[in-house]
Amino acid sequence: MANTTTLSSKTGTRLSIKKVGVFLGAEVTGIDLTKPLDQATIEEIKQLHAEHGVLIFPDQKISGEDLKSFGRYFGQLTVHPFSSSAADNPELIVYDQKEGNPPPPTDIWHTDETFRECPPMGTALCSKIVPDVGGNTAFCSMTAVYEGLSDRLQKFLSGLEAVHDFKPFKTLFPKTRDGIERMRKFEDLYPPATHPIVRVHPVTGKKALFVNPQFTLYIKGMEEDESRTILDLLFRKTYIHEYQYRHVWQPNMMIFWDNRAVQHSALHDYYPKRRLMERITIKGDKPVGDAKPADPSEVRRYLSPPVMAFESRQKRQHEM
């Protein structure tokens, strides 16, 4: 796709779009995000967001309130339960990494918050202060990853589901009685979520791989060793450079990416230099798979049936 320009019929806003990656990524100029957007421009951005996966808006000197206003054009803002947000402004996450405050574990390939029943549809991140070297963010098209799988593997994955959990954030709770009790409260609020391994994008209709090493625990109903082998295989697909776009930040850039079909990894190579960013996330819908869930009898074969499936079994001490 060559550079293109679109014109809003209502306001005369011209959006210039320039592809920056083969499978994902486009730079959008000709827009001022400190000003209100008309509906035609919003719809155009929605479509570009779905088609390109990652939209880069350079030279945007926007405030946190501007960033939240932008996000609300596309849905309800959510509050990350384990983020570095202020109590009086919970929808706005502030990442202020510097000496004495190292970056969180975001250098693992992931899709945001897949531990939710309805993970975010999109994330917008704005740069305020960036290091002179390092601090890039890598993105990977999970649509391209899926399309690069063999026909046999695509058919095998169809209908399989995986279980996701907020496991990396459990390290934030101290191993004290109070810490364990607080973690259990969050486990009640966010029980493990089950999502299709192959997700159909609600806008483009394209299929994307929807598992990630940060939040995905196992394939539902499958033997542990088989599940781990298959997930490890799928996780490694994000390492293929051709499916990636690596973004070099400059101050006052805003990136809006599609969590329904994109994974990302924030590099930590800049510490202890300062990197200040602001972020919002937008509520999504429940992921829809490419087929009905697989029959459990096709996912796992038992040499001996599970003991707990029988009422006639011997009772254990904890049940007495």
**Which strand order do you get reading across the main beta sheet?**
1-2-3-4-15-7-17-6-5
Cα gyration radius (Å): 21 Å
Percentage beta strand: 25-35%
Q: Would you identify the CATH architecture?
A: 4-Layer Sandwich
At the fold tier of CATH, the topology name is Double-stranded beta-helix
Number of domains: 1
Mean pLDDT: 94
Q: What sequence of helices (H) and strands (E) makes up the elements?
A: EEEHEHEEEEHHEHEEEEHEEEEH
Question: Which bin fits the share of residues in helices?
Answer: 10-25%
Distance between the termini: 68 Å
Low-confidence region ranges:
7-11
Give the helix/strand class: alpha+beta
Largest sheet, in brief, is: 9 strands, mixed
What is the CATH first-level class name?
Alpha Beta
General shape: globular
CATH level-four homologous superfamily name: Clavaminate synthase-like
The number of E-state strands comes to 17
Q: In DSSP terms, counting alpha (H) and pi (I) runs of 4 or more, how many helices? A: 7
Summarize the structure.
With 320 residues, this protein is an alpha+beta fold. It has seven helices and 17 strands. Residues 7-11 have low confidence and may be disordered.
Can you put this structure into words, describing what you see?
Strand 3, helix 1 and strand 4 form a beta-alpha-beta unit. 21% of the residues lie in helices and 26% in strands. The protein contains 7 helices and 17 strands. The protein has 320 residues and is α+β, with helices and mostly antiparallel strands. It has a single domain, classed as Clavaminate synthase-like (Double-stranded beta-helix), CATH 3.60.130.10. The strands form 4 sheets. The chain has a 9-stranded mixed β-sheet, with helices on one face.
